């Protein structure tokens, strides 16, 4: 089976993809449409990709100026991941863009960046219009995935029973909440 995760950036998609990556049944490719990715491949037809496992999983971050139709058209299953908490998502985005730290823990230090915030709000609006308003799409939020029991919804959607006993999530949250309290408990 070929599976594509198309997600808003900063929505927990890397952690979700890592969960599949460490499962022997999956070949995983991170951002194959990005020339900077080690999985970059100009071929967008996933049926032509070579993999030796039972399933191929592709993770793509959505950007409103890119076309994902070939990936999506050649996927058996598609997961659309977004984040409800726009404020934290934008803070994470601005931090990642301004520091270059997209996948390591961080403590909020970066001030607001209106240009990046506007870009990201446009990205979210475009993602919503293209994918989240379609009742036929399998849509899941960061909040449902990490604070609800969304992983079981994904497993049921994919129909892969042996994933049910795999611990999720694989990693931890990137943003570190610093407690400045000096009170003793």
Care to give the gist of this entry?
The protein is α/β, with parallel strands linked by helices and 185 residues long.
CATH T-level fold name: Rossmann fold
The CATH class assignment is Alpha Beta
Arithmetic mean pLDDT: 85
What is the beta-strand fraction?
Answer: 15-25%
Distance between the termini: 52 Å
Give the % helix.
Answer: 25-40%
Number of helices: 6
Query: What is the molecular shape?
Result: globular
**Number of DSSP E strands:** 5
What is the SS-derived class?
Answer: alpha/beta
Biggest sheet features: 5 strands, parallel
CATH superfamily: P-loop containing nucleotide triphosphate hydrolases
User: Which blocks of ≥5 consecutive residues have pLDDT under 50?
Assistant: none
CATH architecture: 3-Layer(aba) Sandwich
Strand order within the widest sheet? Answer: 2-3-1-4-5
Order of helices and strands: EHEEHEHHEHH
Count of separate structural domains:
1
Could you tell me the radius of gyration in angstroms? 17 Å
Give a structural overview:
By secondary structure, this protein is an alpha/beta fold. The protein has a single domain (2-165), classed as P-loop containing nucleotide triphosphate hydrolases (Rossmann fold), CATH 3.40.50.300. Helix content is 34%, strand content 15%. The protein is built from 6 helices and 5 strands, in the order βαββαβααβαα. A 5-stranded parallel sheet has the order 2-3-1-4-5, sandwiched between helices. The longest helix has 19 residues, at 114-132. It starts with a strand and ends in a 27-residue tail after the last helix. The mean pLDDT is 85.
């Amino acid at each position: 089976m070929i599976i594509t995760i198309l997600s808003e950036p900063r929505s927990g998609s890397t952690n979700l993809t890592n969960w599949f990556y460490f499962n022997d049944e999956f070949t995983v490719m991170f951002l194959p449409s990005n020339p900077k990715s080690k999985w970059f491949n100009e071929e967008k037809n996933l049926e032509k990709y070579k993999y030796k496992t039972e399933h191929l999983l592709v993770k793509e971050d959505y950007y409103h100026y890119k076309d994902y139709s070939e990936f999506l058209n050649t996927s058996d299953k598609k997961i659309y991941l977004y984040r409800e908490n726009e404020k934290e998502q934008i803070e994470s985005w601005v931090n990642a863009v301004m520091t270059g730290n997209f996948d390591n823990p961080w403590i909020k230090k970066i001030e607001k960046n209106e240009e990046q915030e506007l870009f990201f709000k446009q990205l979210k609006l475009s993602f919503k219009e293209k994918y989240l308003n379609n009742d036929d799409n399998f849509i899941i939020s960061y909040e449902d995935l990490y604070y609800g029991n969304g992983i079981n919804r994904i497993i049921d959607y994919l129909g892969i029973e042996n994933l049910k006993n795999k611990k999720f999530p694989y990693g931890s949250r990137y943003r570190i909440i610093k407690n400045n309290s000096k009170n003793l408990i």
